Amino acid sequence: MASVSMVASENELSLKLLVDTKGHRVLFAEADKEFVDFLFNLLSLPIGWVITVLSKQGMDGSLGKLYESVEALSDTYKQASQVALDALLKPTVYASATTPLLLPNIPIKNSARFYGCQNTHDRLFGSSCNNQVTNDPTTRCANCSTLLSRELTYVDPKNKQSFSPEEGYVKGVVTYMIMDDLEVRPMSSISSITMINRFNVKDIGVLEEKVVDVGMDQRVELLKASLHSKAVLTEVFLKKKPSLVPVEEVD
């Protein structure tokens, strides 16, 4: 497959698919680091945020109903603080120090916030209170019951020295092969031929290269399909639901 340049911006990524037009499926895709970084970033997303983006009604499975149960819970039965419950329903996504998330409506914080006890100079409790740390400023100190509301200085990992000239999770000098089930591996001419043989493609003429834009809608669709499908690329870019009967492959 010829190389394709992938443009990464706030709006678009691009991807080259190898499509089996006879079987109506994506065999694999060719991707640069930006798309791989995007896929790897999906693993960092809190479930509560994923539910809000995909919408409770539009989700497969039962997590949407679980989310609604927390929303509807009466104050009579709440043991946790509202801050703790909001952390479930409206979790903050902490952005990677090196990689943009490229997904919509994320309440991103670039770094975490931590709080210590106000009572740091008390002769009785001071030294012990200094060891009390929380990420919720409404929490009370275990030693003196004072609010842990004194914001501490947090050193972001992005400030550490790095010998890598690039940011993100993977190197940019490599082209990557993305399988239909989102397995990622380095790509080579040999690996491409091996995969074509593995899928038992007898007629090379049925294969077609297709370059697709991966905009915001497609990125959300990829996230949604990844939660229930083993044929994510086929489902998103060919708009074809995977067959219940798996396609035979040759080892």
Topology:
Blueprint: E1 13-20, E2 25-31, H1 33-41, H2 47-54, H3 63-72, H4 82-89, E3 93-94, E4 108-109, E5 115-116, H5 126-129, E6 133-134, E7 150-151, E8 176-179, E9 184-186, H6 189-198, E10 207-214, H7 216-226, H8 232-237
Parallel strand pairs: 3-4
Antiparallel strand pairs: 1-2, 1-10, 2-8, 5-6, 5-7, 8-9
Sketch the topology as an H/E string, one letter per element.
EEHHHHEEEHEEEEHEHH
Q: How many individual helices?
A: 8
Q: Helical content, roughly? A: 25-40%
Overall pLDDT score: 79
Shape: elongated
In what order do the strands lie side by side in the largest sheet? 9-8-2-1-10
Distance between the termini: 22 Å
Radius of gyration: 24 Å
**Low-pLDDT residue spans:** 1-11, 161-165, 244-251
Structural class: alpha+beta
The largest β sheet comes out as: 5 strands, antiparallel
Strand content: 15-25%
Please report the total strand number as a whole number: 10
Describe the structure.
This protein is of the alpha+beta class and 251 residues long. Helices cover 26% and strands 16% of the residues. The chain has eight helices and ten strands. The chain has helices at residues 33-41, 47-54, 63-72, 82-89, 126-129, 189-198, 216-226, 232-237; strands at residues 13-20, 25-31, 93-94, 108-109, 115-116, 133-134, 150-151, 176-179, 184-186, 207-214. The strands form three sheets. Strands 9-8-2-1-10 form a five-stranded antiparallel β-sheet. Strands 6-5-7 form a three-stranded antiparallel β-sheet, with no helix packed on it. Strand 8 and strand 9 form a beta hairpin. The radius of gyration is 24 Å and the shape is elongated. Residues 1-11, 161-165 and 244-251 have low confidence and may be disordered.
